[in-house]
Amino acid sequence: MLAEVLILVPSVARFRADYLLLRLEKAQIASLALLTTDEVIAPDLEAELLVNAGVFNVVLRRDEVRQLALSSPIPAAIYDTYDLRASGPWELIRDAIGVMRDPVNRVIRVIGNPVQQAGLLIEVTMETGPLRKAMLEYGLRILVLSVLISAVTAVLLFISVQRMIVAPIRRVVRHMQAYAEAPEDARRVIAPTSPVVELRAAEDALESMQKQLTGALRQKERLAQLGGAVAKISHDLRNILTTAQLFADRIEGSADPMVARAAPKLVNSISRAVSLCESTLAFGKAEEPPPRLERLALRPLAEEVAEAEGLLGESPVTALIDIPPGFILRADGEQLFRVLSNLVRNARQAMEATGQGGVVEISAGEDDAQWWLRVGDTGPGLPPKAREHLFAAFQGGTRKGGTGLGLAIAAELIRGHGGRLELGRSDSDGTEFLIHLPKQISENSLANV
Questions:
Q1: Which pLDDT tens digit goes with each residue over 22-79?
Q2: Which residues form a coiled coil (predicted)?
Q3: pTM for the complete prediction?
Q4: Residue 440 and which of 78, 123, 276, 361 are 20 to 30 A apart at CA?
Q5: Residue 429 to residue 409: CA distance in whole angstroms
Q6: Range(s) of the domain holding residue 11
């Protein structure tokens, strides 16, 4: 519409100027009849010349002399004068709009330059009614033509958009819907074909994502099958090892010196194998149950963990519990006990392996947003390789014979509380783990409190 306005208004103004120039030219041609004879022309001929020119009178100025060449009665007083010699584009547009808006048939004077330099100026008087009618008809033709051009342009644009944008987008949507029905089927991965650069980039990204997802789903399915097989094997193997452990306990009291020396190693080996089976079965469960959050006194829980790990008696590894007696937090007591037991056990085993003993410190604190728990030791620190996959299942083992599941399960339990478990530091002076538990809990968690 803006383009039509920018085209229509100047066109109508140009049409009005051409219309007036044509009247001046016809009036000049009619006045030439007087120059061909020295006699006075007949009134009927003069009237016919003026009618053909579309004016009431003609004034031609030649050699600084103003001459009334042709004349007839003027039906009304002259309303306005328009000098086409000094009219610029804006004046022509303004005057054209004025004629279009004024429905009254008025008499105007028009001044211009004669053609072929046949004088200094030519001046005519005429009516605005025919001019306005011609301008309206011309404007209507231009408007209809603009509408047709716009309609054709719109159709071409619609077809172009349909073919270049809408159709490729629909194709992408169809591929996404088909892929969602069977993401494991590699045949449903989209093949980029769009000629539009932006859509081609989107198709390339979608293809890459679908291939990665299909590969991940296949790997997950294989791992699930492998996990199921491992769980069954671990279950049966645990039963066999439990029986073997009972017999090993009996032969531990044998009087045979060789059997007495071998029995503890056999018992330890069987115990580690049973622990591996139990950890594998525990991790192979679908999911840990959601924590039952309740107000919990932390110091008694920490003392129970230290006692269960044998750190409160006479042992090379001792416990230092730096928790105020009245320290209260909101957590699942059983799950938090498992997490602390795992961290304390790892610290104790790491220091016992050095043969030098040490201290396991359990401390806690809080701020406005969270509670934090710290489990640190004075052991040798973690090896660099263990830190890379510390919380990954079967990869984060830090000691020989370990399953690599303890820290993975502990991190999962803490995430279930909405918190996080992280390694604070690990160097030659010891290792420190930090547990962060948020004080703000969701409505779903509150329902379990």
A1: 988 888 887 776 666 656 667 787 788 888 888 888 887 766 655 667 778 888 888 9
A2: 199-226
A3: 0.44
A4: 361
A5: 26
A6: 2-145
Q: Final residue of a domain: which of 259, 283, 307?
A: 283
> Same structural domain for residues 310 and 268?
no
**CATH for 331:** 3.30.565.10
Residue 394 lies in a domain: yes
Beta strand 358-366 pairing with 317-322: parallel
Q: Nearest to residue 296, comparing CAs of 304, 285, 307?
A: 304
CB atoms inside a 10 Å sphere around CB 298: 23
- Whether 12 contacts 100, CB under 8 Å: yes
Looking at the 3D structure of the chain, how many domains does it have? 3
Euclidean distance between CA atoms 166 and 139, whole angstroms: 37
381: CB partners within 8 A, 6+ apart: 426, 427, 428, 429, 430, 431
Q: Where are the alpha helices (DSSP H) in 36-127?
A: 43-53, 89-101
Distance of CA 10 to the CA centre of its chain: 45
- What is the rounded average pLDDT of the residues 87-101? 88
Q: Which amino acid is at 63?
A: D
How does pLDDT run across 118-166, given as a tens digit for each residue? 667 888 899 999 999 999 998 888 888 888 888 898 899 999 888 888 8
Structure tokens at 183: 């993401």
Predicted confidence (pLDDT) per residue in 81-90, tens digit: 998 887 888 8
In terms of phi and psi (left: phi > 0; alpha: psi -120 to 50; beta: otherwise), the region of 430 is: left
Amino acid residing at 118: A
Domain co-membership, 239 together with 333: no
- Residue 320: strand pairing partners: 361
Distance from C-alpha of 363 to C-alpha of 441, rounded to nearest angstrom: 23
